[in-house]
Amino acid sequence: MGREVPGVDGMTDFLLELRSEEIPARMQAGARADLEKLFRAQMDDAGVAPGEITVWSTPRRLALIARDLPEATEAVREETKGPATSAPEQALEGFLRKVGLAKDQLEVRDVKGKDTYFAVVEKPGRAVKDVLAQAIPAIVRAFPWPKSMRWGAASISTESLRWVRPLSGIVAILGEELVECEVEGIRSGYATKGHRFHHHGATLGEVGTGYPVSETTGHGLDITIGGAGDYKEKLRACHVLVDHEEREELIRNKARHAAHEAGLVLVDDEGLVIENAGLTEWPVPLLGRFDEEFLEVPPEVIQLTARTNQKYFICRDKAGELANAFVCTANIVALDGGAAIVAGNRKVLAARLSDARFFWDVDRKKTLEEHAKGLERITFHEKLGTVADKVERVAKLARWLVEEGIVPNCDPKLARQAAELCKADLVTEMVGEFPELQGLMGGYYARAEGLPDEVADAIRDHYKPVGQGDEVPTAPVTVAVSLADKLDTVAGFFMKGMKPTGSKDPFALRRAALGILALTLNNSLRGSVAAWLAEGRQQLLASGVEDERPDIESGDSIKDTLVQVFARVYMRDIRDFIADRLKVQQREAGVRHDLIDAVFALGGEDDLVRLLARVRALQDFVGTEDGANLLAGYKRAANILKKEDWRGIEGEISRTGEEDPLANVDDPDLKAVVAAKMEERHAHEKTLSYTPDPEEKALIDALDAAGPRAAAAVEAEDFGAAMAALASLRAPIDAFFDNVTVNDPDEDKRAARLALLDRFRVAVHNVADFSRIEG
Q: Does 465 sit behind a cis peptide bond, omega within 30 degrees of 0 on the bond before it?
């Protein structure tokens, strides 16, 4: 029945059901979103604003209910201004083509004293029922299924309807009225179907259901739907729970209950809940048992076998150990309580577990070292060699990380051994069947052959972390191998110029970089990540992998120069890449990206532990009143210096006409020499040629005290104290701006005060580049 909306005339609800053969569970969530999107687009085009929209799905149907639709669209009057009556004939002809009218249908109006043509089109309101009749076929034909098919005799034509599975019925009711439409011979109606087995008249004689063979044929009698109001409950009466969320909740609760009744605990698996809800219209969770002898297989193998192949939940006992029990989800309430269904599923699972046990037994007949020889047959990447080549590089890099003290408290021999075996399980039968178990199975096989626990753990966990929120290893051997593996990957692909671009990252380098950052920060590893990646590049070069650069056939000196240029570009790109990933990672922790930029901009700060400590202290500081005011003072000083084109020592040299070749040298090795020379040249600035104003003298004294304190605190990595030193400059700089004229007519005063502001800027820059801070 149509639902009347209080206080609103002519509002009613609309029901649309598209019934078909089984829709894959993995496609149903997307199909619900697509159905709503397409429906809204059709309504928007017609000028109809629906109220609440609900979309449901089952394996055999998509259903949409739109609330509060009007009975008719509003009449629309459209006016389009045209050319003046005095305009050339061609302009008028173009306007007539645009609006689709004849000249005698135009109106002439005065616009600012000039006669002008107007086209006036009045579109009468349309019945929403007619709008829907046109919209439904358009929605069906435009539906973007990931995979679709044609069927029947019409399928010989490429113009025939495509749908995920053969479309068999359409229910379309506005209020209590049928919305008549047709799609490829399928006419809309009031009738739908209930449960394939439970609905009266369906064939119940299916093997394994516990039902006797019936003489009835077909898939059930029609159910007549009155409208949106009775749709859900009429289907429920025919054993169809059309609301997917209701089915999900039922599976959660009844699966837990089945396990609880057996004295077990269900292992929660939300993905499996959603999948089973997408496979059933009347879900009935049932508990079954498998032979205890299969429990000798690693529990992850059993869970993956049950989940991936059979869509079963697994259970644990009260001690937390895997139990020889599973919960399957039937689509029927069987007369025998589900005994036949459970027995059938038990046989299928037993066959799968037998295969898994066979793989487990066969793989253990060889050591991991013997398995590892097979890695020579697997290409890691055509430009980076085999997996065996990668393993050798990772082993050397892991040992280097330990011997350099980057990963402390780690045995270098164990680190190398774990690295040499970390990929060996890729050639095992078990991982060949279940690629998701790589690493994990290597850990089991390592323990089975009696290797040290540290080695087994490192093999098991060296892929971690594989994403945001994943566990980050902390065991030293594992950290060394995991870090080396990711460093080698990033270094190799950057050497070959295959760094991520835009949204494309085919080799998951961003994920690898995030893993490097997580390992570094969670374990407080000290050192430069860029330097570690440079070492990774050296390992690649030593193994015969070359930089991706143009071939040079000239003398060696040109080649050497090119190598140096590539090295600089490589390090620049690596640093930028790491900085970008750090900002992404720290955004989740609430760290501002501009503050990371402010510290990175200082240069030379590649120790991420120290860098983030400085950033966090900076974030705390700029959030205080002193910090905010000091930032404002800094920006004011920077603006004055920019306006005056003040360049400090170098700028003064150019104004005095002196020619100092060191002034333009960028070589960092000469930076200290240049600074010393300039300090000597301006020693006279220590004694001003005039008596400074009190506020000017106060700022000079504050800088004399705060500068060394801040520098010493940064050196000691006491960044809180460094910020406190900067805070002492807040009052003096505020007073200076309030009471001192910077651009004094006296040239000596002006130069000295600009130099003082520059000195203030430099003191702040010793802690962070405040020009990068927003606000």
A: yes
**Beta strands 167-174 and 186-189: pairing type?**
parallel
- Taking CA atoms, 754 is separated from 428, 653, 687, in Å, by 71, 15, 15
Average model confidence (pLDDT) across the chain: 86
pLDDT reading at 753 higher than 90? no
- Burial code (b: 16+ CB inside 10 Å, e: under 16) for 607-617 equals bbebbbbbbbb
Query: What's the N-to-C CA distance of the chain in angstroms?
Result: 59
Give the separation between CA 561 and CA 582, rounded to whole angstroms.
Answer: 32
Q: Report which secondary-structure segment, H or E, holds 714.
A: helix 694-715
Q: Is 455 exposed, middle or buried (0-12, 13-18, 19+ CB in 10 A)?
A: buried
The span from the CA of 78 to the CA of 97, in Å, is 16
Per the rule left: phi > 0, alpha: psi between -120 and 50, beta: everything else, 101 is beta
Per-position DSSP letters for 278-313, written without gaps between them: HH-SS-EEEEEE--GGGGGS-HHHHHHIIIIIH--E
Q: Among 121, 125, 59, 436, which residue's Cα sits nearest to residue 278?
A: 59
**b/e for 623-660, b at 16 or more Cβ within 10 A?**
eeebbeebbebbeebbebbeeeebebbebbbeeeeeeb
Residue at 429: amino acid letter:
E
Q: Are 581 and 514 in contact (CB under 8 A)?
A: yes
CA–CA separation, 573 and 12 (whole Å): 61
Q: Which residue has the tokens 């901009």?
A: 601
SS3 state of residue 679? helix
Pair 393, 514: CB distance under 8 Å? no
**For residue 767, what are the contacts with CB-CB under 8 A and spacing of at least 6?**
614, 618, 710, 714, 719, 722, 723, 726
Mean pLDDT of 360-385: 95
> In the structure encoding, which two tokens stand for residue 479, read together?
């950290």
> Do 497 and 545 form a contact (C-beta atoms < 8 A)?
no
At residue 104's C-alpha, the angle toward residues 100 and 110, to 5°, is: 100
Q: How far apart are CA 550 and CA 552, in angstroms?
A: 6
CA distance 361 to 339: 32
pLDDT at residue 575 is higher than 90: no
* 769, 604 contact by CB (below 8 A): no
Evaluated on CA atoms 388, 538, 464, 272, the torsion sign reads: negative
CA torsion angle 208 212 215 219 (round to 10):
-40
* Selection from 597, 591, 621, 648 nearest residue 726 by Cα: 621
Going by their DSSP bridges, the two strands 167-174 and 182-183 should be labelled as unpaired
**What is the C-alpha to C-alpha distance for residues 431 and 345, in angstroms, rounded to an integer?**
24
Task: Give the DSSP H/E element, type plus range, for residue 15.
Answer: strand 11-20
Q: Count Cβ atoms below 10 Å from residue 545 Cβ, excluding itself.
A: 20
The pLDDT assigned to 514 comes to 92
- List, in sequence order, the alpha helices (H) in 280-403: 299-304, 310, 339-363, 368-372, 387-403
Kind of pairing, strands 167-174 and 11-20? antiparallel
pLDDT at 582: 85
Residue 206 neighbours by CB under 8 Å, 6+ apart: 197
- At 214, the pLDDT band (50, 70, 90 cuts) reads very low
Closest by Cα among 75, 5, 25, 68 to 47: 75
Distance CA 580, CA 330 (A): 49
Q: How many CA atoms lie within 13 A of 234 on its CB side?
A: 15
**Strand 379-381 to 182-183 pairing:** unpaired
Q: Is the pLDDT of residue 673 over 70?
A: no
Q: How confident is the model at residue 487 (pLDDT cuts 50, 70, 90)?
A: very high
C-beta separation of 199 from 235 below 8 A: no
Q: Which of 513, 504, 547, 505 is nearest to 533 (CA)?
A: 513
